[in-house]
Amino acid sequence: xxxxxxxxxxxxxxxxxxxxxxVIRVLVLRAQEGDTEAFGKLYDHFFLPIYxxxxxxxxSDLVEDLVADIFVKAWEKLHTYKxxxxxxxxxWLFRIARYTVIDAYRTQxxxxxxxDELVDDDELNRxxxxxxxxxxxxxxxxxxxxxxxRYREVLLLSYxxxxxxxxxxxxxxxxxxxxxxxxxxxxxxxxxxxxLEMVQRA
Length: 202
Prior knowledge:
Elements: H1 21-32, H2 36-55, H3 60-77, H4 89-107, H5 133-145, H6 149-160, H7 165-171, H8 176-193, H9 196-201
Helix pairs in contact: 1-2, 2-3, 2-4, 3-4, 4-7, 6-8, 7-8
């Protein structure tokens, strides 16, 4: 286990309450029958993971619109989702999220994956060694932006969206073993891009 195996993003937002997969399937079936309240419960459960994922992929001024678009597309495409164990609803939803962000790249040529307002890594070398959360977030986003796309994707789905390995595999159309290897390589690469002091603190 590398030092980066500890989720670095736990301080960003509180996690949503855990809902059993069986309950999610029931809510999906109800939503497919037109029950907007059931879809609202799915929205409440998945909003924070989707928001966190999108906020690491898009400029802050576009995040809210993209998140809204993701859930609109999910509602519109809900009838195409087949409730079965092989493809959890969360994995299906994150596929929509991934392609929504990709579509945004294609339609906006000046779209950048992270904000330009990045701090210099040397800020961690200040005498008091105190860096606020926003600075840390910017440093992590800068390092993530330098990763190969699939490395970045597996880390965002695993640690920002906090999907289980099985759902990450489905979302990325890979095997669980392939995801584990990819995540290990991605963590090592990310570790090499972050300031040493930040890695040691993790």
